Amino acid sequence: MTATLAPHERSGALRAAGGYLGMLIVILVVALPLYWILAAALKERPDIYTVPVTWLPDPVTAENFSTVRTGVDFLDYLRNSIIITVMLTAVQVVLGVLSAYALAFLRFPGRGVVLMFIIAALMVPSQITMISNYALVSSLGWRNSFTGIIVPLAGVAFGTFLMRNHFLSLPSEVLEAAEMDAAGPIRTLVRVVLPMSWPTLIAFTLITVVNEWNQYLWPLLIADDSSVAPLPVGLTQLQDAEGLTNWGPVMAGTVLTMVPILVVFLLLQRHMIKGLTAGAVKG
Amino acid sequence: MTADARTEDRPVAALTAPPPGSGARVVTTRGQRYRRREVLLALAFLFPNLVLLGVFTYRPLLDNFRLSFTSWNIASPTAQYIGFDNYVEWFTSSSSQTVLWNTVVFTGAAVVGSMVLGLALALLLDQKLVGRNAVRSLVFAPFVLAGAAVGVAFQFVFDPTFGLVQDVLGRLGIDAPSFYQDPRWALFMVTTTYVWKNLGYTFVIYLAALQGRRAELDEAAEIDAASTWTKFRRVTWPQLRPATFFLLITVLLNSFQVFDVIHTMTRGGPLGDGTTTMVYQIYQETFVNLRAGYGATVASIMFVALLLITLAQVFLMERGRQK
After folding, report:
1. Is residue A282 domain-resident?
2. In terms of CB atoms within 10 Å, which end of chain A has fewer, N or C?
C-alpha cells in the first residue's frame, strides 16, 4: 500500500503517525497521575499497600470518601473555600472594574503615576510582604478570621490592568455618544461599557476564582483549624494526620479538592484562556 | 537643566503641543482643565484599591527592609536592631549556597522545561489531528489545580514502594532512584511536579501565538521550500518572540515563588535543606525557626534579585524589539 503513495503523501502519513504517537505520550504523562490518585481513592486500604501495586481498584469502595467527610471536617473546609473564593472574587472584580474605568475614561491629575503604582504591585511577590502582613494581621486580632484571610488579598493589580486595556480598545464613538447623552459615569459603565466587555470580564472573574480557590500560603499562616481554613490547607492537615500510613483518605481528599475547580475549568476554559493570553501574543 | 535646554530648543512646540508626561507647569497652557466632578469620581473609584495595595503590598515591602536589620522572634512585640548582621550571616553561611543553588536549579529547570515542552506541545497540537481539542484541554487542566493538592498527590505518585513512578520504572527494568532520601533526586522530583502542573500555561500562550500567525505562516511556507527545521527557525520562531519574552518574565517570576509544591512534598528536605529554595527559606526561618528578622533579610535579597532579573529582561526585550 505504501508503494502506491507519492513521496509527499508518504511523508504526510508519517507526520500524522508521529503526531498521534506524540498525543498518546502526552495523554499518558498528564492523565496517568490523575488516574493514579483516583484509583487509590477508590481502593480498599490493603489494596493500596500491595507489592507489586495493582492498577485497578477491586473492589471499588467509597470508604475513603466517607472517612474524609466524617474524620476531618472536610465539609467545613469546603464551606470556607467557597466563602473565601466568593468574597474575594466579588470584591476584586468590583474594585478591578472601577479602577480600570477610572484609569481608562476619567481625566484626573496623576493618572500615569496611579497606573504605575497599580502595575508595579505585580512585581511584589506575596512571600516578601507576608512577614510584615502577618504581624499586622496578628496585632489587629484578625488571625483565624475570614477578615484576616480576605482583606490582605483583596487589592487588584492584574485584573485592573487587564480591564483597563480592554476598555481602551473599545470604539471611542460609543463612549462619546454616551457622554453626549449626558449619561452619568455609573450609567455609562453599567449600560454601555460592561455589556461590551463580557468576555474579558468573565476571563478576569475566572482567573480570580481559580487563584483564590487555590490560595495556600497565606491561609496556612492565618488559619489554625477548620473554622476558617480553606480546602488546600485542610488537605495538608489531613496529610499530616494520615499521610504515608493511610494514602486512601488523603487521595480522596485530593480528589475532592481538585474536582470543583476542574468542573469550572471544563465548562469555561475558553474564556479563561482568553484572559491569560491577552497581551502575551502581540507584545 | 535638560528640561530648560529642551524648552529653549522648541519654545513654541512646548507651549502649544506639550509631549505627554511633561512637567506640571505646562498644564495650564494645555487648555484641558480637569472637571472637579470627574476627579472626585476617579478618586472614589480608585481609593479602596489603592488603599489595599498601599497597606498590604507597599507598606510591608518597605517594612520588610526595616525588619531585615533586626533580630526578631515573630511572636514577640519588639524587634532588636542589629545592623547588617543578618545580611553578613546570609552571604557567608554555607547553607545559603545550597539554598541559592536549589533556587537557581529549580527556577532554571522550571523555566526552560515548561517553555520547551510547552512550545513542543503547542506545535504538536496546532496540527490537524483528530481529538486534538480534548488533548489541549487535558494539557491545560493541571494548571488550574491547587499546587498544594498537586503536591500531596505527587507525594504518592513518587512513593518509593507503592507509587506510580516506581511501578512504571520497574516494568522497564529500572530501579527507582530514592526521591525522598537523595537531595538531588528530591529536587528533580519537585521540579518535575511543578513543570507538570505549569506546562498548561506555557502551552496555551504558545498555542495562541501560533494561531495568531496562521495566515502569514502559510504564505511563508508556500514560498519557501526549505526543510521543516529551517522553516521553524526562520519563519515560526521569530514570530513567537513576543510570546517567548512574555513567558520568560512571567514563568520566571512565578517559579521563583513556588511554595506549595515544595511544602507538601518535602518540607524543604531531605537532609534539612535538600529542596529549600529562597522562598521556602523565608517561610522556614520566619515561622518555623521564629527568626523573622533573618527571614525578612532573605526576602529582601530575593526581592532585589527578582527586580534586577526582571529589569534586565525588559531591557533585553526592548533592545530585541528595536532590532
Report:
1. no
2. N
